[in-house]
Amino acid sequence: MLGNLSFPFYKSSEPDCGLWKVDCDNRLTELEGMMFEILEKYGASMRLKVPILGDLLKNKSCQTFDKDITLPFTPSISYTIDNHLTLFKCNSSDKTLGKVFNSKIHQSYACGSIILYYNTSNKAGDYPVLDYFPFPSSCSVIRLPVPQSSVPTSNNSGLFDQLSDRFKLSWTVSEQCKQCYYQGGMCQTHTATDEFYCHNTNKGNMKVLAAGFYL
After folding, report:
1. pLDDT digits (tens, 9 = 90+) for 21-74
2. What are the sequence ranges of the domains in the chain?
């Protein structure tokens, strides 16, 4: 039992009542199209588990790196992942990688047709500033959980042994979204401008807001 859940959460039967869908029967939550198992909730934080990832790590499967726990920042809600590692997932056939990723800064790990570069000097909750790092077009950025008590510091045991399928996620709802919701509106984002707007705030057509539900 995780207790009372209210805004920003919503049940699938009440999609207009929040930002974050929760499946109460199966203790699952969906964020940006990704499903996570809810292990525990405390305040504005949750411990989440990535389904299947544990088995992929145990089997040292390269499909591990098809997973990604990156969540976007929006005008309505922002997320902080407290224990994760940022990896550059690159095509190993790219001959320019050695010029881009400094071996004194980035560790590397080859897996099948890909090679992963990562820098363990960043703190677990930090998102590195990627805008100023010109990584090749053959690379993409992914984030995966690491054990809560530490960040991997060496490549000796292999990358798989340094990752986890669990992480802590915290969130902050923006003040404009809170105000919109409690006035009966829906927090949304303009697709063209990425700016916040409050939909359906006509006081003559106020929505009935759910007080909360239990999981």
Report:
1. 888 778 888 887 788 999 998 888 999 999 899 999 999 999 999 999 988 888
2. 10-172, 175-205
* Signed CA dihedral, 145, 149, 154, 156: sign only: negative
CB 45 within 8 A of CB 143: no
Alpha-carbon distance 77 to 180, whole Å?
A: 13
Alpha carbons 11 and 183: distance in angstroms, whole number: 20
Which residue in 71, 51, 104, 77 sits closest to 173, CA to CA? Answer: 77
Alpha helices in the chain (DSSP H): 53-58, 97-100, 175-182
- Token pair of 198 as six digits: 């409050």
How far, in Å, CA of 111 to CA of 43, rounded?
38
Residue 68 CA, chain-centre distance (Å), reads: 7
Looking up tokens 């209210």 gives 6
Tokens of 160: 């798989």
Q: Would the pTM count as exceeding 0.85?
A: no
Encode pLDDT of 125-153 as tens digits: 444 445 446 788 899 999 999 986 655 55
Q: What is the largest CA-CA distance in the chain?
A: 64
